[in-house]
Amino acid sequence: MTEDQLNDLMAEQAPPDMAAPPRLSGAPVHFVGQPPTLNATIEFVNDSSDKNRVRYLELADFEIATPAQVRVMGRLQAKECRSLNAAVNIQAATPAGEYAGVVRCGEEQQAAVLHVLERFDLEVLPQELELHASGGDKVTATVVAVNRGNVDFIVPKVTKIHLEEDDWVGRSAVAALKNARPAGFDDFMNKLTGEVFARQVSAATVNVRTGNYRIAAGQTGTLELEIQLPPLGQHSSFHGPMKLNRLEIPVAVDTWVS
Hints:
Layout: H1 3-13, E1 23-24, E2 29-33, E3 37-45, E4 52-53, E5 56-60, E6 69-73, E7 75-76, E8 81-89, E9 97-105, E10 108-116, E11 122-125, E12 129-132, E13 138-147, E14 153-154, E15 158-161, E16 164-165, H2 168-179, H3 185-198, E17 204-209, E18 214-215, E19 220-228, E20 237-244, E21 247-254
Helix pairs in contact: 2-3
């Protein structure tokens, strides 16, 4: 057993009045972070001639739900004044803002503020879309969006999928080599340039239908997607992201001969 572990054991087994507990320095405490976890550094003063440890603080008088205790990590040397790390867990959907209250350490208390930052966290199922269709087709898909953050998510009514052909560089080079004359470098480069431009794909247009275009924190929405594909090459595959505000959903499209 190490010296620190032995000291901790002795401190736990010591009578309550053996040493005065550490006290708060008097400086306001600021917990900052994205829910569910907010962090703070809190200054303590150990007036005792022995090592001392702060294990928990109490939270009170906040206008949002908070746990009864806050875990504090660290130990104070005799007559030491220093800051220790502390963390508090709140509900994930707690709105962004500042919430005032107090922290208590034994019989004393001091002002505290929870600075809750915005947290964007939208989960979409399925996490990616796989479409099997021909170029120019109109296809439909359904996704379920769960807002696990603490800010409302605004669903766009129209968005785009910027597609590109899989391995379009290699396919362009192969096609150019087939069509170019032997040892004709200039001809090959001209053919390659033409193939590259020919394989560029227009964006697909997506119309989004839902009962509520604002998904509140902690809520779920069902999105019906109507996807208009652009002209696409046959016997090929394409991929690209569909953007829903800050979220991107991977989309893969396989084509075949109608």
